[in-house]
Design a protein that fits this description.
The complex is a heterodimer of chains A (about 425) and B (about 160). Chain A has about 425 residues and is α+β, with helices and mostly antiparallel strands. Chain A has 14 helices and 21 strands. Chain A has helices at about 25-40, 130-135, 160-165, 170-175, 200-205, 210-215, 215-220, 225-230, 250-260, 275-285, 285-295, 335-350, 355-370, 405-420, and strands spanning about 20, 45, 55-60, 65-70, 75-80, 95-100, 100-105, 110, 115-120, 140-145, 150-155, 190-195, 240-245, 245-250, 300, 305-310, 310-320, 320-330, 380, 390, 395-400. Chain B has one domain: Nuclear Transport Factor 2, Chain: A (Roll), CATH 3.10.450.50. A six-stranded mixed beta sheet of chain B has the order 2-1-6-5-4-3. The chains are: A alpha+beta (about 425), B alpha+beta (about 160).
């Protein structure tokens, strides 16, 4: 199938426990996804700590569209499109900087960092004020911020960010709760790791609890790591459908059973005394201990933000078979001893040369080549269908290695694609 | 940086060392490559420019000696999928220049181009390496290697072979 055939319908390509391979390879499906998912739903763009000062800006993206995230002199965050409203030249070249205005190099049109057109040379060539009022930079119409995380939606209306996040907003709460100051600092810079694979291969893998013991056996065998056991047959960890395509590997049952503070991070309180003291001062000893037992979330927020305990990944599709994973270390504002360890562990694990992510990325590319085979046509997502159950909040959960998350992602995907453009 | 007085023997020794490292990398001689490192070595591939602070910012690689050993051990398991099978690589190292000699260590710069062939296709990697080489009774050892990729501020493919 080379094009999206309206007579076939998404229900024929996406079933409860299997999906058609063409969903990863068909350029027409990709084009439809841009309109129905990436340019419609809420997409994570950046974090407020990336533009800490007035007039700071940084170039981010929504899918393949570059987006300038700017902070104006009043402190408000804007998401602007990098296109002069005159003849479409780029107005911003640097990846980041500090400027109250962007000047197009082609004819000198100048825009404020709120998007307003400030002026253009040789004024008499235009009928003055009209053009200035109408020709501000394109902007992402809806911008919402939750716990410092900036999301944008290209749709003029639709669900609010909180409606979109639903119960998955708790993942952001849990992440921030581990910072004694209550704030994150995501200014360590992002690695950009490119793969020749469809973006959904990545989304599905982030909460796939079945793969770690196989894909990552090489590093688990040479570095002392307890991660593999969290995703074994005997693990009490859960896979969870959080709704709206958001999914989770909930490792808390295992961490609570093991009952070692900071065991989730592979360390002990005596190695990071400054951090532990700060966390106890902020929360009290009992609550701090709970936080240090439960650890940081492992949650994939559909469609593009993966909270991986001490890292954040942003998934950016560039083509049907090309995707960039942006990744940075989580840093707790004001906790240098913990931050140093989280940064160094992140550098070791992720990115193009990472002990973990290089191998995940090899799997994405192998999947992408494999799915072109003519037979079988389907990708099978049946694992654990017989043992799905509801948790106390009414979410579908399965065992650690079950494909509950993958089924949840596709269910939501289908609802968005069927909703049309 | 002005030129040092030319010490041909020293320069040849340094060139031979840099070429040998390149060959060991291309031929996946992991033990041979690891033996080039001093016990207190640092192996650094920065991201987002060449002048970042690796203790505060993300790097592509920032290995101390123990992490270099882990990297080699992982490759040797045969289950490092990103290098199973290993990439076919050949690299050209040129512009080898002896930049400084403080009596303890030699500061050496060189440019490189690596051609990497995998199932994905041919990927070209280019950049500049800066070495601190330490003369010992058994020849030179690498105390420090920094690899500045020309595209370290852009999206790059998996870099799991030895750069």
């Amino acid at each position: 199938m080379s094009t999206v055939d309206a007579t076939i319908g998404w229900d024929r390509l996406i079933e409860h426990d299997r999906v058609h391979g063409s969903l990863y390879t068909d350029p027409a499906v990709y084009e439809a996804e841009l309109e129905r998912i990436w340019y419609r739903t809420w997409v994570f763009v950046g974090h407020v700590s990336e533009v800490p000062e007035p007039n700071d800006y940084v170039v981010k993206s929504i899918g393949p569209q570059p987006v300038i995230m700017s902070r104006d002199k009043q402190g408000e965050i804007h998401l602007l499109l990098n296109r002069c409203t005159h003849r479409a030249n780029l107005v911003c070249d640097a990846a980041r900087g500090n400027s109250s205005a962007f000047r197009c190099p082609y004819h000198g049109w100048t825009f404020s960092n709120t998007g307003r057109l400030l002026g253009y040379p040789f004024n008499s060539g235009y009928d003055g004020r009209e053009a200035k009022r109408e020709l501000g930079l394109g902007r992402v119409p809806r911008v919402e911020i939750y716990r410092g995380f900036v999301f944008g939606s290209f749709a003029d209306d639709g669900p609010t960010l909180l409606e979109h996040l639903g119960d998955a907003r708790e993942a952001l709460d849990r992440l921030v709760a581990l910072s004694p100051s209550g704030e994150l600092d995501l200014s360590a810079g992002w690695l950009q790791h490119k793969v020749k694979a469809n973006w959904k291969m990545l989304v599905e893998n982030e909460t796939d609890g079945y793969h770690p013991q196989f894909v990552h056996s090489s590093i688990f065998s040479v570095a002392k790591s307890g991660i593999g056991d969290l995703y074994g047959e005997e693990s009490t960890a859960l896979s969870r459908d959080l709704g709206n395509g958001h999914t989770e590997n909930d490792l808390r049952p295992e961490f609570r059973r093991i009952d070692q503070p900071l065991g989730w991070f592979g360390t002990t309180p005596d190695r990071v005394p400054g951090y532990v003291a700060q966390l106890e001062a902020a929360n009290g000893a009992e609550k701090a201990r709970e936080l240090m037992i439960d650890g940081s979330p492992h949650v994939m927020l559909f469609p593009n933000l993966f909270i991986a305990e001490i890292q954040l990944f942003v998934i950016q599709p560039l083509a049907v078979d090309e995707t960039v994973q942006h990744v940075t270390a989580v840093q707790y504002k004001g906790s240098p001893d913990m931050n140093r360890r989280m940064l160094q562990q992140t550098i070791g694990s992720v990115g193009p040369a990472g002990f973990l992510l290089a191998d995940d990325s090899e799997m994405y590319e192998r999947n992408q080549r494999g799915v072109h085979a003519r037979s079988p046509e389907w990708v099978v997502l049946k694992r654990g269908t017989h043992r799905e159950r509801l948790d106390e909040n009414g979410h579908v959960v399965g065992d650690a290695t079950d494909e509950v998350p993958q089924r949840a992602i596709w269910k939501h995907y289908r609802s968005l694609m069927e909703a049309g453009s | 940086m002005s030129a040092l007085p030319l010490n041909l023997d020293r320069l040849l020794e340094v060139q031979q060392f840099v070429y040998r490292e390149a060959r060991l990398q291309d031929e996946h001689d992991y033990d041979g490559w690891e033996a080039l490192w001093a016990d207190d070595a640092t192996y650094w591939v920065p991201a987002n420019g060449d002048a970042i602070d690796p203790t505060r910012e993300m790097s592509i690689i920032f290995d101390n000696r123990s992490r270099i050993a882990t990297r080699v051990k992982q490759l040797k398991t045969g289950k490092r999928h990103a290098q199973a099978p290993p990439s076919r690589t050949r690299r050209v190292v040129s512009n080898v220049e002896l930049l400084a000699d403080d009596g303890e260590e030699l500061l050496v710069g060189a440019n490189f181009a690596v051609y990497e062939s995998r199932e994905r296709g041919l990927t070209v990697w280019a950049g500049r390496s800066t070495y601190r080489l330490r003369p010992t009774g058994d020849g030179l050892l690498m105390a420090y290697k920094k690899v500045e990729l020309v595209d370290n501020d852009r999206a790059i493919y998996t870099l799991a072979f030895l750069i």
